[in-house]
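Lecture 7 notes: from sequence to structure.

We start with a single chain of 260 residues. Read the sequence below before looking at the structure.
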Amino acid sequence: MFRGLAKKLIKRIHSFFNKRGSRKKCYTCQNTFDHFLKFKNGLKSVPEFIKRLQMVGSDVENFKCAVCGSTDRERHFFMFFDKLGLWDKMVNGEILHMAPEVKLSEKISSLRPAKYIKGDLFPSDKSIQKIDIIRIPFPDNSFDSVICNHVLEHIPDCLQAVKEIFRVLKPKGYAILQTPYSKLLSRNFEEEKINTDELRFFFYGQEDHVRIFSEKQFFLLLTSAGFTLEVIKHSEFFSEKEADYFGVNKEEDLIKVIKP
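Now the structure, written as tokens:
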């Protein structure tokens, strides 16, 4: 019991001094502090196999804001959406947001879209509908935009998921489809016998991932479904210094696709 209390006290002291720092800034809540919080133990938790693949994805060393709790992927969205003026397109728009992030969904809701559907296969609260992304329960051409951030790596039939997103988008509608991928692989890496939590963690980086996407095959998947692909480079808008200050991955670009 004493050890537990001591750990809690140390954690509170650590948090107190962290929030008095100014080396880092959360783009979402605009608070400054000394450092972002790691995902688990940061790079120490990442399997060597994943490190060797030089994955483009979350910044595990700068994962969560010490004040508002927004993740690196959310903060990156806020940065990109500001630069691209995507918030304006959501006003009075019809939006489908799969596996909705808390801070991002709060921002979208504040814009008063005409329709905002939050969906997840395993909803965490009543505001989120139970939706299987390979069987989206809405008619063709229902949405102006779809946000699907780090979801496809969890979906066995990812092609069907992308086809469903294409189907429910209106013509000229767009989707943001982020997923971890490797530029070193020429094709996706997924094996039927990698079927335990231990094996999936080692080879895919997380127990509930079902593959490693190759950049080449991921982009081909999107275009083969009928989308026009638009890769918006992080480096076009942000410096390495900004990426470090705001705690986002300078290697992760925004994957935007448009339904012709």
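Residues 40-56+75-258 form a domain with the Rossmann fold fold (CATH 3.40.50.150). Keep this in mind for problem set 3.
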